[in-house]
UniProtKB/TrEMBL annotation:
Belongs to the Wnt family. Keywords: Developmental protein, Disulfide bond, Extracellular matrix, Lipoprotein, Secreted, Wnt signaling pathway. SMART domains: WNT1. Its main location: secreted. InterPro entries: Wnt (IPR005817), Wnt1 (IPR009139), Wnt_C (IPR043158), Wnt_CS (IPR018161). The gene is LOC111940491. This is Protein Wnt. The keyword Protein transport does not apply. GO terms for cellular component: extracellular space. Ligand for members of the frizzled family of seven transmembrane receptors.
Amino acid sequence: MRQECKCHGMSGSCTVRTCWMRLPTFRAVGDVLKDRFDGASRVIYGNKGSNRASRVELHHLEPENPAHKPPSPHDLVYFEKSPNFCTYSGKMGTAGTAGRFCNSSSPGLDGCELLCCGRGYRTRTQRVTERCNCTFHWCCHVSCLNCTNTQVLHECL
């Protein structure tokens, strides 16, 4: 949160100043969370000290990899690895990506390389008939032509 203020007074003078706390924009919050997500580290519960230590000192978070620095209070951490969303797992409730349609020219999340998890994809063409060039006739009648297009579909293996 950040403080914003506004001045009130005659001819722009600041005789009275009103201040309030304002949330940052949704984009700013999202950017901060994304940065923390990208830098998140896996941690385990540590048990340093004797059994006589207080509960606060008994359990603390340690990085899974001892070469990494311990997390700060502002770091994002996780205990369990995410399931493999690429393959079907009834136990974990993941459907996998086999059979999903992808965009072969996109480098983004919908791109075939990422969405198909490197397994490849098959390409097929399909003829699709749709209604087109529709016109409305007064009152209450619409007439359309049928247009046939060829679509190229990419499907994850």
